[in-house]
Amino acid sequence: MIELSVVVPVLNEADNIPALVQEIRTALEGRLAYEIVYVNDGSTDRTPEVLAGLCRDLPNFRALHHDKRSGQSAAVRSGVKAAHGAWIATLDGDGQNDPADIPKLWAKMQDLGGGAVMIAGWRTQRKDVWSKRIASRLANRIRVALLRDETPDTGCGIKLFPRAEFLEFPYFNHYHRYLAALMKRQGGKVVSVPVNHRPRGAGKSNYGNLDRALVGISDLFGVAWLQRRGSIPRVREEA
């Protein structure tokens, strides 16, 4: 039985895929039963061919393909819906998240007893360009002030959470940036853990600072509206 599904959304990341997959395998092999689920979000480079080769070579590797670019949130959602594991770990496909941190997140989850808990990565020493770091820091402050999700780095791609809880989140584009707030809205717990952060391996980012800011403003107020409409109660059946 698969315990953990590692979901990785990718868009034109052909040169980063093989090394990251090997790192995931190195981090998890022999520790727990896992699978790797890559979601190709309409890539126009060699990403489909690279994923096809890995599907042939690795028994616990799966690849999903969007017929057109639909965004990172849609790719994460597709991967989680198709996953076989009860727990999901997400990673960005550019290699900046370190798969070696997944066992740390898994151990923290077990220490907390599992349940409705999200373990969120916290990039305490980011390796991005200065403009991206400043934009993210400002966005985090605004988000925390408005949503009070008490998460210092909601934009970090490495997270661990229960599949069943995720599938209860209301879906909207770009909601991958608000998973912590959505988990807390459902009565769950969010714990941030410092993780390693690395320079991008190859290629270039698919999103700029302006892009993030423009789509983030309406989303931020939308999530705040969801919070005001009331939280979701936890349900316990009498034994």
From TrEMBL:
Q: Which GO terms describe its cellular component?
A: plasma membrane
**Gene Ontology BP terms:** lipopolysaccharide biosynthetic process
Query: Which intervals hold domain Glycosyltransferase 2-like?
Result: 5-163
Pfam families, per the entry: Glycos_transf_2
Listed InterPro entries:
Glyco_trans_2-like, Glycosyltransferase_2, Nucleotide-diphossugar_trans
Q: Which PANTHER family match?
A: UNDECAPRENYL-PHOSPHATE 4-DEOXY-4-FORMAMIDO-L-ARABINOSE TRANSFERASE, UNDECAPRENYL-PHOSPHATE 4-DEOXY-4-FORMAMIDO-L-ARABINOSE TRANSFERASE-RELATED
Ordered alphabetically, the record's keywords are: Cell membrane, Glycosyltransferase, Lipopolysaccharide biosynthesis, Membrane, Transferase, Transmembrane, Transmembrane helix
Hey, what's the signal peptide range on this chain? Answer: none
Provide the protein name.
Dolichol-phosphate mannosyltransferase
MF term (GO), any: undecaprenyl-phosphate 4-deoxy-4-formamido-L-arabinose transferase activity
Superkingdom of this protein's organism: Bacteria
